[in-house]
Every structure is written in structure tokens, then in C-alpha cells.
């Protein structure tokens, strides 16, 4: 019974995360850019080496930082997807390679569908590079779970061997 509750929680969290990503992808280019710009300005507001630049030079630097922040956002949102997918798959009695394959497949398909979704949003468009960044996030999120499980399993086995 406890495992079913855990699965339900993980499914709800996964669907919620996918909904958040869908919402971000549904923003038009201006809305999305405005959010990225606000975050960039907040991050750089106390960095005097940026703030003291000439207006045009400052704008170039801010655009580069904004681009990095956007890509980090992609990566981070999808790392959560990978974490939740692998956590969910780990609650089932499957071979490890099948857990990995399923998690990777679902994560990649969602990243592709997200980029296709953006093709229909004004001022946005699909980018293959974003699929790669998104999928990299999925893999890192999965790896966090796999390392945690491995660590826990090794610790449990050592404890059992010492008793």
C-alpha cells in the first residue's frame, strides 16, 4: 500500500512539472523574454563590473547572460523530470536497463513534444539544441536517483554484513 502512495505522489509531481514546462513553453516570445530579462537583471544588479559598462556593451553582456540563464532553466526543469521519472521507475520491479530506457524515452519524447509545442507559439520556435539540453537535464536527474539508490543499497548491504 505504501508503494502505491509513493507512486501516486511521484506521478502527481511529474504531471505538475510537465504542466509547468508546458506553461512556460506556451508563453509568446515577448512574455518569455521578459521573464528571462527580469531574472538576468536581478542576477547581475550587484555586479559592478557589468553595471559600470557603457550602455551598448552592457546590453551585449546582459544578452549573453540571459541566453545562459534560459538554457540553465531548460536544463534544470528537465533534470527534475529525469529525477521524478527515475524515482517512479525505481518503484517497479524492472531490470535496471529497462528503468533507464523507459525514463530516457519518456524524457526525450516530452522534450521533443515541448519543442514542437513551441512551433505554434508566436515569437517562439523549436530548437534541436534545446532538445539536447533538455535531455541532458533528464539524464542528470536520473543519475542523481541512480547514485542515491546505489549509495543506499551499498550502505544497507554493509550494515547487514556487519551484524
The portion of residues forming beta strands comes to under 5%
Rg to the nearest angstrom?
20 Å
What is the string of SSEs from the N terminus onward? HHHHHH
Largest sheet: none
User: Mean of residue pLDDT?
Assistant: 93
How would you explain this protein's 3D organization?
α1 packs antiparallel against α4 (55-89), α2 (29-44) crosses α4 and α4 packs antiparallel against α5. The chain has helices at 2-25, 29-44, 48-51, 55-89, 96-118, 128-162. It has 163 residues and is mainly α. The protein has 6 helices and no strands. It has one domain.
Using brief descriptors, characterize the structure shown.
163 residues; mainly alpha; 6 helices; 84% helix; elongated
Task: Outline the secondary-structure elements.
Layout: H1 2-25, H2 29-44, H3 48-51, H4 55-89, H5 96-118, H6 128-162
Give a summary of the structure in a few sentences.
The chain has 163 residues and is an all-alpha fold. It contains 6 helices and no strands.
